[in-house]
Design goal:
Strand content: under 5%
Helix content: 55-70%
Largest sheet: 2 strands, antiparallel
Order of helices and strands: HHHHHHEEHEHEHHEHHEHHHHHH
Number of helices: 18
Bound molecules: arginine
CATH class of the largest domain: Mainly Alpha
GO molecular function, one term: argininosuccinate lyase activity
Distance between the termini: 56 Å
Organism: Peptoniphilus indolicus ATCC 29427
EC number: 4.3.2.1
Oligomer: single chain
Keywords: Amino-acid biosynthesis, Arginine biosynthesis, Cytoplasm, Lyase
GO biological process, one term: L-arginine biosynthetic process via ornithine
Number of strands: 6
Shape: elongated
CATH superfamily of the largest domain: Fumarase/aspartase (Central domain)
CATH topology of the largest domain: Fumarase C, Chain A, domain 2
CATH architecture of the largest domain: Up-down Bundle
Structural class: mainly alpha
Length: about 450
């Protein structure tokens, strides 16, 4: 039986449709672990400050432990009759331990309770996000290390530009994710203050110890303004922004995996384990996982927009609007966590077709810039060299000859300075070796 909390003040029970609308347990049950953690710290502080007795504390503490155990073992079901997870656990505690349970909520409001729960959840999710991104970085490093010599065309405007290696290309993503890691840990630093003790909005007259609960829960200090404490969800917004940004990077990488695995490119082959087939076309192997990764960024963006829009018009301090924060938060965290696992698996198992990449790197007059640079080294001004090279490319296109195939006599018609050493200068491996590429690693 869930307690009927409002029966002292209300004449009538909440309409069932209103209860259904108001109740959040279907969503916020996911906070049960952090809620119990917060309550245990609060009870310990109440006891330390002489507000509850040793005996009451022991009952509350072990009662909360038994609830946690039963939830985790599947022996306790969340009741739909409860308004939210906080009321459910409090009511279950009183059912189990009797009157001591009724003292847990002394010097606390659900407003600072839910604020601390959400903050703890957000901090834990941030930590997991950083760990997962580090794991992703390791896989990217592995792929890069295996492809230090895999020459491929580098693109601008998706037109062949200059030769690069696949290692160079994939390590661009390592930089993006490194910035994401730094952004999340920076946001996490700002999350490290505890709102517990702010009460409903105006603190409490009990002699509580906010420093104690803050440190007990792993925060650095208590928050400084109680009204801000219960109405602040900046930490959720910040994490959701960071995850939306990660989603944008996932989406760009996914788009390349889709293009590069197409028949036209064939630069990579995505493993069967991370592909789907077609119900009608027997030959098909589709990059569905990469397409979904691309689409999931939209969910991550919309959760960020959702929470910011929800928060923008609410006056101080707590308002029920804020109950909706969890749907955005949980959805972004879950979307991110499954997305990154899929991406890690896909990158770890894909095959890089370096022969095909090298073949394509010979096309599209990829060494034209190096031809111009050759002329500059022979004393021409860059603009003149650029013009001459453009004319050579036009000639090559008309004769269907690559720059390596045009004979020296022909080059000399464009400029006297061309010599036999030119062909070495436009060789792909030579070009790559001459370029100054920075490397960095975790070690
Ligand atoms: N379920 C609520 C939430 O998540 C708890 C806070 C309720 N507070 C209140 N004053 N009604 O926001």
């Amino acid at each position: 039986m869930v307690m009927d909390l409002y029966k002292g003040r209300f004449n009538n029970k909440t309409a069932s449709i209103a209860h259904e609308f108001n109740s959040s347990i279907g969503v916020d049950y996911k906070l049960y672990r952090v809620d119990i953690k917060g309550s245990k710290a609060h009870a310990k502080m109440l006891n330390k400050c002489g507000i509850i007795s040793d005996e009451e504390f022991t009952k509350i503490d072990s009662g909360l432990d038994s609830i946690l155990l039963d939830i985790e073992n599947g022996n306790l079901e969340f009741s739909k009759d409860a308004e939210d997870i906080h009321m459910f656990i409090e009511s279950e505690l009183t059912n189990r331990i009797g009157d001591a349970g009724k003292k847990l909520h002394t010097a606390r409001s659900r407003n600072d309770q839910v604020a601390v729960d959400v903050k703890l959840f957000t901090i834990e999710a941030s930590k997991r996000a950083i760990d997962l991104l580090v794991e992703l970085e390791r896989i990217i490093f592995k792929v890069a290390e295996e492809n230090l010599d895999s020459v491929m065309p580098g693109y601008t405007h998706l037109q062949i530009a200059q030769p690069v290696t696949f290692a160079h290309h994939i390590m661009a993503y390592a930089q993006m994710f490194l910035r994401d890691i730094s952004r999340i840990s920076d946001a996490r630093d700002r999350m490290m203050t505890s709102p517990l003790g702010a009460g409903a909005l105006a603190t409490t007259t009990y002699e509580i110890d906010r420093d104690f609960t803050a440190l007990e829960l792993g925060f650095k200090a208590p928050t400084l303004n109680s009204m801000d404490s219960v109405s602040d969800r900046d930490h959720v917004v910040e994490l959701l922004y960071c995850l939306a940004n990660v989603g944008m990077h996932f989406s760009r990488l996914a788009e390349e995996l889709i293009i590069y695995s197409s028949q036209e490119f064939k630069f990579i082959t995505i493993a069967d384990e991370y592909s789907s087939g077609s119900s009608i076309m027997p030959q098909k192997k589709n990059p569905d996982m990469a397409e979904l990764l691309r689409a999931k960024s939209a969910c991550l963006y919309s959760n960020l927009m959702g929470i910011m829009t929800m928060l923008k018009g609410i006056p101080l301090a707590y308002n029920k609007d804020m109950q909706e924060d969890k749907e955005y938060l949980f959805d972004s965290v879950e979307t991110f966590e499954i997305s990154i696992e899929v991406l890690k698996g896909m990158l770890d198992t894909m095959v890089v077709n370096s022969n095909r990449m090298r073949e394509m790197a010979h096309k599209g007059y990829i060494n034209a810039t190096d031809t111009a640079d050759y002329l500059v080294k022979k004393g021409l001004a860059f603009r003149d060299a650029y013009y001459i090279t453009g004319s050579i490319v036009k000639y090559g296109i008309s004769e269907n000859l690559s720059l390596n195939e045009i004979p020296l006599e022909k080059y000399k018609e464009f400029s006297e300075v061309f010599e036999e050493d030119y062909y070495k200068f436009i060789d792909l491996d030579y070009i790559l070796n001459e370029r100054k590429v920075f490397w960095w690693s975790f070690s």
